Amino acid sequence: MSSTWFWIAKRRQKEIISMCIVHIDKISNIAKTLKEMVEHYVKKEFDVAKSKYEQIFNMEREADNIKRKIIAELSREMFHPIDREELIRLTLTSDDIAAYLKATSRRLLLLSEAEIPPDVSQVILSMIDKIYDATKLLKDDVTELFEVPRKALEIADDVERLEEEVDELRMEALESILKWCETVKVSTCILTKEIIDSLENAADKCEDVADVIRSIA
Fold first, then answer.
1. Confidence (pLDDT) at 82
2. Which region holds residue 112: left if phi is over 0, alpha if psi is between -120 and 50, else beta?
3. Is residue 210 packed enough to be buried (19+ CB in 10 Å), middle (13-18) or exposed (0-12)?
4. For residues 96 and 183, what is the distance between their CA atoms, to the nearest angstrom?
5. Would you call 137 exposed, middle or buried from its count of C-beta atoms within 10 A (0-12, 13-18, 19+)?
6. Distance in angstroms (rounded) separating the CA atoms of residues 23 and 139
7. Are the CB atoms for 106 and 53 separated by under 8 Å?
């Protein structure tokens, strides 16, 4: 009886993990669309950038719905309390990545048609690139959880390295922004810094997800 329950619990756990993979894939698409939004913004294609924001808004809402479904499934199933807690933490922390990416896109929209210096916009794009790479790695990482746990640990290390690179880029961006702030409106300066901070927070959450995966693995 005990072995049967264990088998059922493991099977349901794999099903939840599959939902987590779908969730992270949606978040990865948000990162990809955010990069496209910034690229159009830099080219002064503001209408296209706004349409990309609307896509991000809708995808973040879809990710939120997936999050709620995962938590609902975990709440009504016979999971070991530790397993349930770890999977809920994985889901909520992953969802934080989407929230920070959406916040970045919203702040970019609030900048209206302010012109960000090329060096700052390039650093922003580089940060998003690395966050996008991190989300793709997280999807692989969750996939390996029940296949090759040792591989999951290695991928988590790669995510951590990307977070460190984003942190270095943030310092580079802040240095340029401080010089630029002497020549622009205070509101423009503040919003641009908040964009950088939101991206750093998204990268931090990628590392937090990797830490949860390490714990599960």
1. 58
2. left
3. buried
4. 34
5. buried
6. 9
7. yes
Pick the closest to residue 173 from 104, 110, 109, 122 (CA basis).
122
* Dist. CA 106–CA 154, nearest whole Å: 34
User: What is the amino acid identity at position 40?
Assistant: H
Per-residue pLDDT for 10 more than 70?
A: no
Q: Which of 23, 22, 37 is nearest to 199 (CA)?
A: 37
C-beta neighbour count of 171 within 10 angstroms: 11
**Range 169-191 average pLDDT:** 87
CA nearest neighbour of 49 among 107, 95, 122:
107
The answer to whether the CB of 206 falls within 8 A of the CB of 97 is yes
Count Cβ atoms below 10 Å from residue 22 Cβ, excluding itself: 14
Burial of 80 (0-12, 13-18, 19+ CB in 10 A): exposed
Residue type, 68: R
Helix (H) or strand (E) holding 206: helix 186-216
Output the six-digit token pair for 154.
């290695």
As a whole number of angstroms, the distance between CA 25 and CA 31 comes to 10
Could you please report the per-residue DSSP string of 51-63? HHHHHHHHHHHHH
Per-residue model confidence as pLDDT tens digits over 64-74: 999 999 999 88
